[in-house]
Every structure is written in C-alpha cells, then in structure tokens.
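In this section we walk through a basic example: taking a raw amino acid sequence and producing a predicted 3D structure, encoded as discrete structure tokens. The instruction is simple. Fold the sequence below.
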Amino acid sequence: MKKAILSLLVAASVTGSISAQEHVEYVTIVKPEFRDQMMFGLKAGANYSNVYDAQGEEFRADAKFGFAAGAFLAIPLGKFLGVQPEILYSQKGFHATGNILGNPYEFTRTTNYIDVPVFLALKPAEFLTVLAGPQYSYLMKQKDVFTSPIVNTAQETEFKNDNIRKNTVSLAGGIDVNVQHVVISARAGWDFTNNNGNGTSSTPRYKNTWLQATIGFRF
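The resulting token sequence is shown next.
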C-alpha cells in the first residue's frame, strides 16, 4: 500500500514538472516579434534646419528649429528587411544676420513642407531599425521676416503646386529605437534636386539640410 501511494506521488510530481516546463516553453514561443509585423504609427518632434549655397559662394546662415509631425507604415520584407514610407508636415528654414549700409539686419525664413520619404529599413535587432532612402518634399508655404533699424517687413506666400514635378527631391536617413510600441527616431537629410515644371531636373542653389528628432507610437 505504501509503495502504491509513493508511486502516485512520484507520478504527480513528474507530471507537474512537465506541465510547468511546457507552459514556460509556450510563453516563450508566443512572445511578439515586431520585426515580422506590419505596423502603423504616429510621431511628432522637431527639425533643426539650415541651408547652404550649392554654388560654393560665401554664404552664412544659422540653423533654426521647426515643428515636425506625421505618420509612418512599417512593411516587413522578412525579419531583417522592410520598407517604411512616411508622410510628415515639416518646417524648415534658416536665420541670417548681416549689415546693409552700416545698419544691422536679421532675416528669418520658415518653409512649410509635406515630406514623403520612402525608406529601406534594415532591422539588425528588434530594438533598432536603420533607414535610408529618397524623399519627395512638397512646398506649401513660405514666410520671410526682415528686421532692421530702418524697416521691418514680413511676407508670407502660399504655393499652389498643381504640377508635382515643381518640388524637391532629397536624400534622408536615420535610426529608430524601438521600445515595445514606443519609437524614438533620429533623421538627417539634405536636398538633392528640385524638379521643374517641364520635367527636367536641376540642383537648387540653396539646399535645405536638416536634423530631425521625433517620438512616436506604433500600433
């Protein structure tokens, strides 16, 4: 009788251990892997932008901050590769100072774009995504503010770009740091060409350059 009871206790202990082990293995298997999933996200942050003279003549300007916000879609092409298109409202521009006829002046330009980058995404780890690709920028509005002891002016222009080939093509890249559903992003970009209305491409004399930092949430 004692041997039978002992055998039952041993069998129950072994069965319980196997069940616990199977439970642990199951939890490990169903752990979510975001690299394999299509994800939609929203993000917001700031640009730190400037311009430079593409023709190499002496031109000095100071960078300025602007707002940036938009949405992105992460499309997996396997575990380690993907495509990530984005659409953002993006403020760029610059701040400059100088002298005219011995009088100091300040000039600030703020440009408002719709930026549409299409990134190739390299995902070496779940927490890190490396991105690079072309960006199309649609100029919506520009505001120039000029101040001096003699005259102060502010001019704002809205653009109706009915021909999409009139806008700017850029190169951009950066990284995403992924913490579960939170995404912390850093980007850098610069104008490459602008497309004229007749379909030909040219290099703009004054190119935008920018750094961008955003925080977002992906679903």
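Looking at the output, two observations stand out. DSSP finds one helix and ten strands in the chain. The CA atoms of residues 181 and 212 lie 20 Å apart. In the next section we compare this with other chains.
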